[in-house]
Write a structure and sequence with these properties.
This protein is an alpha+beta fold. The chain contains two helices and ten strands. The protein has a domain of 106 residues: Trna Endonuclease, Chain: A, domain 1 (3-Layer(aba) Sandwich), CATH 3.40.1350.10. The termini are far apart.
Length: 163
């Protein structure tokens, strides 16, 4: 079978604008689009949280500003799932949404979520970052290794947020 052998050999879809080359195309030979990448991140994060004994809830529809909810002893914590990218030994992700097509540039999640859950396909790890740690930032980096200049101040270590 031509499609399955391409996936087994690690073939990736690099032709779709915005697609993540770390995620292989599906077995029907279709392209992995932006929505698929988000769905994969959400599924992986959900599985990781459940493995750690969390009760995970999913809202019906795509109209909420959050993707998941965890029930922690009767307290609901809203989670926005983001796809992270591994760049310069750091997992990088956006902490606000863009609405350029609706006349706005950026919109934060302040007051609408308690956590970002970030899935990085390049290292296959998930991170749970409190919203408070991201306030005032449009993007965030979680360092995997020390920076070249050995900066420590303001560094957010990925290991501290790993699920």
């Amino acid at each position: 079978m031509e499609c399955s052998s391409a996936v087994e050999q690690g073939a990736v879809n690099t032709k779709v604008a915005g697609s993540n080359p770390a995620i292989p195309a599906n077995t029907q030979g279709l392209s992995v689009g932006t929505k698929d990448i988000g769905d994969i991140a959400e599924a992986v994060v959900t599985a990781e949280l459940m493995k750690r004994g969390k009760k995970v809830l999913k809202p019906i529809g795509d109209n909420a500003r959050y993707d998941l909810v965890i029930d922690e002893d009767g307290f609901f914590k809203r989670i926005q799932v983001k796809n992270g990218r591994l760049v310069d030994d750091a997992v990088r992700f956006a902490t606000c949404s863009t609405y350029g097509h609706r006349g706005r540039s950026r919109r934060t999640y302040e007051g609408e979520i308690e956590y970002f859950a970030v899935y990085c396909p390049e290292n296959n790890k998930s991170y749970l970052v409190p919203m408070d740690a991201t306030v005032g930032k449009a993007k965030m980096a979680l360092r995997l290794t020390p920076s070249r200049n050995n900066q420590q101040r303001g560094v957010r270590w990925a290991k501290d947020y790993e699920i």
